[in-house]
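Postdoc handover notes: sequence design on the structure in folder B. Input tokens:
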């Protein structure tokens, strides 16, 4: 009599373990990765990923609340011509920089050449050696062939608003570079001045975004200007090939001053480098300038 009871208990336990494995292996990941419809109302800082037509998932996006911020130099470095108050509508931006895994899926699907990883590895490292043209083409592939949502590069204003995350200091964590907040030359991480770090290796800012400062410079869609005149709030058409575009955020190779949240840089849209990557935004509006 005892043996059948023990056998029943063991069998029930094994069945329970198997059912839990099924739940955690298949149902919970699917729930966590459900796409948020473009028209749905969600709490801010909530993440979502779109299902792709090829069966994968798009980049993880975070909803950012509307608000105002002071763009440009801050504190003692204020320049009346370099600081302005900008009102932002809500938008979604990538929690992480676009990774090799995400970009390689696009490259395989479209037959474009995969960018060089410098021998550092692919997977969840940020994609590097991509031009603005190539980053824009990746976004268009998501738009046209894979999802019902509109993706693009961020404007310079969107990028800085997201990077600041309602803070008002040199870096989102304070006025000193500190230790191990980011990947740069003298940031105190094990990747400093050597190579990129896997995305998400450092703490997120208050908007739940990782690596906004350091790791790789990030393309924006805005035309570069020394003093802000409004171009920072718009995208320049990819067909305008002669104008310089803005790069933001600094990289694994940058000194700390180049990671400051307001620091901006310029380059041609066909520029490629092992310090440059990108992340995407998604909005309901399209501030494209011809």
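Designed sequence:
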């Amino acid at each position: 009599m005892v043996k059948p009871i023990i056998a029943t208990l063991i069998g029930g336990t094994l069945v329970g373990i198997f059912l839990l494995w099924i739940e955690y292996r298949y149902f919970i990941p699917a729930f966590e990765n459900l796409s948020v419809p473009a028209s749905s109302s969600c709490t801010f800082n909530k993440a979502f990923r779109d299902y792709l037509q090829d069966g994968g998932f798009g980049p993880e996006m975070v909803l950012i609340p509307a608000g105002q911020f002071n763009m440009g130099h801050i504190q003692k470095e204020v320049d009346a011509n370099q600081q302005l108050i900008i009102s932002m509508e809500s938008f979604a931006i990538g929690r992480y920089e676009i990774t090799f895994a995400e970009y390689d899926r696009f490259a395989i699907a479209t037959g474009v050449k995969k960018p060089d990883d410098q021998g550092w590895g692919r997977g969840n490292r940020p994609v590097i050696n991509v031009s603005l043209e190539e980053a824009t083409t990746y976004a268009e592939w998501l738009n046209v062939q894979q999802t019902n949502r509109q993706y693009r590069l961020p404007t310079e204003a969107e990028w800085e608003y997201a990077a600041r995350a309602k803070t008002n200091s040199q870096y989102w964590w304070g006025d000193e570079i500190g230790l191990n907040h980011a990947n740069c030359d003298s940031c105190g991480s094990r990747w400093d001045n050597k190579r990129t770090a896997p995305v998400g290796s450092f703490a997120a800012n208050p908007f739940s975004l990782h690596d906004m400062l350091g790791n790789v410079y990030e393309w924006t869609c805005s035309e570069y200007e020394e003093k802000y005149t409004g171009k920072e709030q718009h995208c320049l058409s990819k067909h305008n090939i002669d104008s310089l575009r803005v790069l933001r955020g600094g990289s694994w190779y940058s000194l700390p001053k180049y990671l400051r949240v307001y620091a901006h840089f310029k380059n041609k849209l066909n520029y490629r480098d092992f310090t440059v990557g990108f992340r995407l935004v998604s909005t309901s509006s399209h501030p494209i300038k011809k």
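Context for whoever picks this up: The longest strand covers residues 217-223. Don't rerun without checking with the PI first.
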